[in-house]
Each structure stands twice: as structure tokens, then as C-alpha cells.
Write a structure and sequence with these properties.
The protein is α+β, with helices and mostly antiparallel strands and 146 residues long. The protein has a domain of 93 residues: Alpha-Beta Plaits, CATH 3.30.70. The chain has four helices and four strands; from the N terminus they run βαββαβαα. A four-stranded antiparallel sheet has the order 2-3-1-4. The longest helix is centred in the first third of the chain and has 17 residues.
Length: 146
């Protein structure tokens, strides 16, 4: 059977549980028509480059499919009817990648940003020629001399 990567965008005002329900519905359509969903990745709520049907954000989801063309066509037809789905795109591929997609890897990289440990920070004890806080005078105190 042909292999496909399918991405769909769901409205921003539905919950992640409702997105999971949509995914289960679409998985059911594929499986009932003789296909198989190899991988499901939820990329989360992301900001769109431009408004789509008055939405500034959308829930992104990737489905890797091993399905006949008729199953994919039926799933796309159902997505076109569903008002919670803003956009979708299906691409036929030669092989499905079992590894996490670039979007998931990017999110993991952002979560584990290279922050210096406390031991790696420069010593902040020496402030150079900057006066201690106690030696500073407020501007109103300097103007009232007398």
C-alpha cells in the first residue's frame, strides 16, 4: 500500500482532548477502509503565519499512514466536512520515518535549552567601580542640600 504523511490543523478554541477525539475518528476511517496509522504526533498549539478562518493559532497533528488511496480520500472528505479542521495536507512518501519528526525534536530542544548551571556562571561578587547600594543617593536628596 502507498505511504502518506498527513498533517491537519484544528481550531484553536477546541481542547486537546477534542483534538485526540478527532485523531481517533480519522484513525477509525483509515482502519475501516483497510489502512493503518503508523504514527501520530501532536505538535501542540502553534501560532499561524496568517489568520485562517479567523483563527490566529491552531492545534497541529501529524499522521503517518499506510493506507489505500480510497481510505485517504475518504478521510480527507470527512476533514473537509468537519468544522473543527482548518486545513490539511497529505503527501505521498517513499518511506515513513519511525523517528520523531523535526517539529517534535525542535520542541524537545527548546525545552532543554542550554542554560548554564549555577557553577558555570561568572562570579558576580566583584562589581568593579560600581558603588554599593548603600552609598547611592536619590536625586531628590541631592537637590535638597542646605
Amino acid at each position: 500500500m502507498p505511504l502518506y504523511e498527513h498533517v491537519f490543523l484544528a481550531r484553536q478554541d477546541i481542547t486537546s482532548q477534542q483534538v485526540d477525539t478527532l485523531v481517533e475518528n480519522f484513525k477509525g476511517i483509515i482502519e475501516n477502509n483497510g489502512g493503518k496509522v503508523e504514527k501520530v504526533e501532536g505538535w501542540g498549539l502553534k501560532t499561524l503565519a496568517y489568520r485562517i478562518k479567523k483563527n490566529r493559532k491552531a492545534h497541529f497533528t501529524l499522521l503517518n499512514l499506510d493506507a489505500p488511496p480510497a481510505a485517504v480520500k475518504e478521510m480527507e472528505r470527512q476533514m473537509g466536512i468537519n468544522e473543527d479542521v482548518l486545513r490539511f495536507m497529505t503527501i505521498k512518501v517513499e518511506a515513513l520515518d519511525p523517528e520523531p519528526s523535526a517539529m517534535v525534536q525542535k520542541r524537545d530542544r527548546d525545552d532543554r535549552r542550554d542554560r548554564p548551571d549555577r557553577g558555570d556562571r561568572p562570579d558576580r561578587g566583584d562589581r568593579g567601580d560600581r558603588p554599593d547600594r548603600g552609598e547611592r543617593r536619590r536625586p531628590e536628596e541631592t537637590s535638597r542640600e542646605g
